[in-house]
């Protein structure tokens, strides 16, 4: 399996903020940022840093976050703290913060760190500074435009993909977290510029409850096609069954869609023995997905995600770092023997899923084309060369928020597809006075994403959108 004759190593950038592992969601909360420090010490211990450019990442500003999120939500995240949260009762409810997504000391700082790292990874890929960018702190795929969800507050994935879209006509998003990548799917639901593919557990009210095997369909002449693919899976899926679906599906999607960049969310809660998960992947099996995606040799942004049995998460992401830099550590890392006996899913079930997925793919346009337009300026500008020294990681002073004009304005690709925003807004007109549904919020989220790149959205539409978003919060 291993590409033994390959001597060329990819240029890999690795982002790690020394403080990101010191945040605490609170006693008893399954999300432990400490897993990030643990992963990093293994990466250092195995000498993997020698094969990568290691950076202390940029910290995302409120402005960066508002590229996707609503201003009042981000403003709230920035202001709320355990000491003052009593005064935010209404907002806590509106923004879904409190239970699964608690208020903890340094919440905004935490978001700023993991988001900044993903964003910088995207920028480096755009400027061909690296071929692979790794941010294990990122991958918080449930965060929504208007609210927190499933331990995620700021969606670093959506923000990074928006940055990648400045240079890349087609971005493929692949999600192997056990949970459905709902926040990312929602944000790019109406565009063919991003294709989202999520493999996850579906059924029995498993969080977040979305992501059933969908039929990709066309909603009328002017609509954007739904470039999203969901592969719902059952409890206990093992390496072999997972591979039998993952590899042919991803191969087909890559051949078909021809992405110019791939974002891979590597949630480790799909491993066996996860505190919250119910799959049975081994670290080797999980890593095989990463290796397979890497084998296409397409610029790759690798992100973390879920993962709640801390020691396994750290082993998994260390092992995957080693795969990404073509360094063998598999004999040393204790990654086997800890997983329960595996469950092979019925062949018929796998075949049925595979068939449906392939039928869906047939309905899509091959590699949708794009037009060249002016682009918004870069989020980060590079003022001097990047450093590769792991001790003195690329200082953040290297990066300023927003372009100072030092970098030439880039090329923006815009989809030739016209999206049915007016169809959707017409629908909103009727519901003007009713409370906006969760689904509609999702569509709004997707529309807003489009407006960043599509000047064609009319003022009237924007006014309507504005009206409806205000309605959400009042
Ligand atoms: Zn998860």
TrEMBL record:
It is found in: Nucleus. Transmembrane segments: none annotated. A divalent metal cation binds at residues 177, 179, 269. One of its GO terms (biological process) is epigenetic regulation of gene expression. Substrate binds at residues 100, 150, 308. GO terms for cellular component: nucleus. This is Histone deacetylase. It comes from Echeneis naucrates. The gene is hdac3.
């Amino acid at each position: 399996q291993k590409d033994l004759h390959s001597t060329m190593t990819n240029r890999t950038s690795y982002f790690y903020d020394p403080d990101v592992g010191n945040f605490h969601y609170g006693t008893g909360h399954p999300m432990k940022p400490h897993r990030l420090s643990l992963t990093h010490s293994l990466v250092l211990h195995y000498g993997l840093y020698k094969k990568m450019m290691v950076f202390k990442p940029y910290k995302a500003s409120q402005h960066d976050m508002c590229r996707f999120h609503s201003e009042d939500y981000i403003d709230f995240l920035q202001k709320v703290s355990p000491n003052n949260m009593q005064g935010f009762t209404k907002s806590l409810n509106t923004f879904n913060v409190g239970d699964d997504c608690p208020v903890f000391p340094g919440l905004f700082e935490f978001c700023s760190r993991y988001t900044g790292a993903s964003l910088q990874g995207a920028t480096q890929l755009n400027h061909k500074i690296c071929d692979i960018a790794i941010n294990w702190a990122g991958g918080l795929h449930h965060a929504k435009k208007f609210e927190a969800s499933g331990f995620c507050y700021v969606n670093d994935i959506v923000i990074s993909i928006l940055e990648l879209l400045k240079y890349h006509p087609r971005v493929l998003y692949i999600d192997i977290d056990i949970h459905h990548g709902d926040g990312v799917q929602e944000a790019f639901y109406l565009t063919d510029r991003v294709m989202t593919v999520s493999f996850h557990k579906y059924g029995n009210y498993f969080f977040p409850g979305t992501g059933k095997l969908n039929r990709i369909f066309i909603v009328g002449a002017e609509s954007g096609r739904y470039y999203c693919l969901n592969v719902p899976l059952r409890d206990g899926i093992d390496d072999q069954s997972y591979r039998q679906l993952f590899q042919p599906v991803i191969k087909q999607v890559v051949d078909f869609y021809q992405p110019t960049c791939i974002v891979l969310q590597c949630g480790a809660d799909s491993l066996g023995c996860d505190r919250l998960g119910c799959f049975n992947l081994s670290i080797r099996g999980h890593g095989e997905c990463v290796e397979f995606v890497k084998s296409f040799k397409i610029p790759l942004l690798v992100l973390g995600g879920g993962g709640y049995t801390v020691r396994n998460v750290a082993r998994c992401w260390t092992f995957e770092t080693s795969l990404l830099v073509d360094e063998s550590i598999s004999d040393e890392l204790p990654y086997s023997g800890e997983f329960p006996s595996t469950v092979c899913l019925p062949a018929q079930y796998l075949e049925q899923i595979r068939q449906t997925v392939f039928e869906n793919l047939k309905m899509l346009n091959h590699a949708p084309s794009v037009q060249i337009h002016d682009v918004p300026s870069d989020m980060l500008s590079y003022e001097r060369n990047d450093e590769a020294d792991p001790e003195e990681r690329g200082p953040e002073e290297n990066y300023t928020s927003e372009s100072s004009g030092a970098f030439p304005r880039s090329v923006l690709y815009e989809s030739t597809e016209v999206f049915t925003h007016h169809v959707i807004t017409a629908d909103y007109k009727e519901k003007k006075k009713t409370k906006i549904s969760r689904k509609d919020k999702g569509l709004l989220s997707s529309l807003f994403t489009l407006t960043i790149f599509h000047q064609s959205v009319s003022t009237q539409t924007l006014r309507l959108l504005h009206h409806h978003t205000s309605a959400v919060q009042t």
